[in-house]
Design a protein that fits this description.
By secondary structure, the chain is mainly alpha-helical. It is built from five helices and no strands.
């Protein structure tokens, strides 16, 4: 008599592995998307609806922040997340609330302190840099926690 398949457990295991892969591949982009969207919403709340020129300043500054970080820390973008464990990425991503809150909070402060055109320029730049630097710290903390778990 032929053996029956073990049931849904293998399919569930496959789903969980693919879900972990999806989280691993999308966590940084997800956190950045939440942060930059919240920054735009915060500035809109403080400054009112942006004019087209303000939106262009906002996006140019956000893109420039990545370029600056890439120039300052060239190794930051050469290490692939492929070498990082899913556990470290998941833990680091769960800490993103801190870097997102810091980035949006700083953008709000700049929105209050700076004239309108400058706030659209500097808030997105500063929020992006704050988020990128903050997530690097969060990932380092997550890596240290994971290393400590394996030592203990």
């Amino acid at each position: 008599m032929p053996r029956r398949a073990a049931g849904p457990a293998p399919e569930l295991g496959l789903y969980v592995r693919e879900l972990r892969l999806s989280l691993r591949n999308n966590s940084g982009a997800f956190g950045y998307s939440v942060m930059i969207t919240s920054t735009m919403a915060m500035l809109t709340s403080i400054e009112g609806s942006p004019r087209p020129a303000h939106i262009i300043l906002f996006l140019l500054a956000a893109v420039a922040s990545f370029a600056l970080i890439e120039v300052i820390a060239p190794r930051a973008f050469t290490r692939s997340l492929e070498g990082e464990t899913t556990t470290v990425i998941a833990l680091g991503s769960s800490l993103n609330l801190l870097s997102i809150a810091a980035a949006v909070g700083l953008a709000a402060l700049l929105g209050v302190l700076l004239p309108t055109p400058l706030s659209w320029l500097f808030a997105s730049f500063t929020a992006s840099v704050t988020y990128l630097l903050g997530t690097a710290v969060e990932m380092a903390i997550a890596r240290r926690i994971e290393e400590k778990r394996h030592v203990d």
